[in-house]
Amino acid sequence: MDWQSGSPELWAFLESLHRGDILSGTVVAIERFGVFVALDDGPDHPTLPGVGFLGLPELSWRRFDDPSDVVQVGQRVSCEFMGSDTHNAEARLSLKVLELDPLQAFADRTVVGQEFRGTVETVAPIGIFVDLGDGIVGLVPSREIDGRPAAGPTEDFEVGEQIAVVVAEIELQTRRVFLSRSESNQ
C-alpha cells in the first residue's frame, strides 16, 4: 500500500515531528513485540492501533518479562520522538529516555572498590550475577577477566544467597557492572 497517497494526513503529521519532540498519548495495545500509543495530536492510523510505537528496548531501563509490567492499556504516557518508521508509517517513541537511567545514577554515586551486599540472582558458567538493588545487576566472573579477580567455583553459590561484593568496574557504554568478591566473604 502506498501510505502517502492513502493517508496524507498521517504523512503530514509524521513529517512535522522532530527527533526529541515530547509527545503524549494513551496506550491502546500491548503486543509481545511492543506497545502502540494513540498520540494526542496525531491522526488515526489506517491499519495499526496507534500512530505511536514503543519498541521493547525503549520501554524501560529496567529489565521486565512482559511489556504489561511497564505500561497498561489506557495509561497516559509522555514519550520522546525518536524518528519515523516509513515502512509502517508510525512514530517510533521512547519512554525510557525521559526516565533517570539507574545505571548512570549508580555510576554517579559509586566508586571502584566500594563494597555492597547483594543477592545472587543467577549462577552461570561465566560467573555469578548479583542483584545490588535499584535494577543494578553485576557479574562476578568465574575466572579472572582483564585482571578482575575471579569468584572461584560458581557451584559454591546459591540463588538467593546474600553476599558481599566490591565494584571492580562500571562500563556505561556496554551497560555492564563487574564485581569481585569482598574480603569479608573469604
Secondary structure blueprint with pairings:
Elements: H1 3-6, H2 8-16, E1 22-31, E2 34-39, E3 52-55, E4 76-85, E5 90-94, H3 102-109, E6 115-124, E7 127-133, E8 136-141, E9 162-171, E10 176-181
Parallel strand pairs: 3-5
Antiparallel strand pairs: 1-2, 1-4, 2-3, 4-5, 6-7, 6-9, 7-8, 9-10
What would a concise description of this structure say?
This protein has 186 residues and is mainly beta. The chain has helices at residues 3-6, 8-16, 102-109; strands at residues 22-31, 34-39, 52-55, 76-85, 90-94, 115-124, 127-133, 136-141, 162-171, 176-181.
General description of the model:
With 186 residues, the chain is mainly beta. It folds into two domains: 3-98, Beta Barrel (OB fold (Dihydrolipoamide Acetyltransferase, E2P)); 102-185, Beta Barrel (OB fold (Dihydrolipoamide Acetyltransferase, E2P)). It is built from three helices and ten strands, in the order H-H-E-E-E-E-E-H-E-E-E-E-E. The chain has helices at 3-6, 8-16, 102-109, and strands at residues 22-31, 34-39, 52-55, 76-85, 90-94, 115-124, 127-133, 136-141, 162-171, 176-181. The chain starts with a helix and ends in a 5-residue tail after the last strand. The relative contact order is 0.13. Residues 1-5 have low confidence and may be disordered.
